[in-house]
Specification:
A four-stranded mixed β-sheet has the order 1-3-8-5. It has a four-stranded mixed β-sheet with strand order 2-4-7-6, with no helix packed on it. By secondary structure, the protein is mainly beta. It has one helix and eight strands.
């Protein structure tokens, strides 16, 4: 983990589906979510380090959430921002019930 921190990483907390983090690598903790089965949560990250041509990878993990099946379904970089869609793909009617931790890594420029 020390290598990642030396490569311009950071953390932030989202409010109403938005966060600001001007780093190439990062972790965003979402607000507490109640996204229903087959619902989609949109996380928009304002990030001046990202360009539309960057290759960006993202993953999602449970923070305080214990239900549902959160899955990254889209990662869309733009000049100065990044949009990550997270779908709840649980097989039954189980909504999310807490925070998620979204990690990303941007490569380019």
């Amino acid at each position: 983990m020390a290598t990642i921190f030396s490569l311009n990483s950071g953390t932030a907390t989202a409010t109403a589906g938005a966060a600001t983090l001007n780093n190439r690598f990062g972790k965003i903790t979402t607000e507490s979510l109640t996204t229903a089965q087959n619902g989609v949560y949109t996380l928009t990250i304002t990030n001046l380090s990202i360009a539309a041509t960057d290759l960006v990878m993202a993953s999602v993990a449970n923070g305080t959430n214990t239900q549902g099946t959160p899955t990254v379904t889209r990662v869309q970089p733009a000049d100065g921002s990044l949009v990550i869609l997270i779908s709840n793909l649980h097989a039954s009617a189980q909504a999310l019930n807490g925070t998620l931790v979204v990690s990303f890594a941007a490569f380019g420029r």
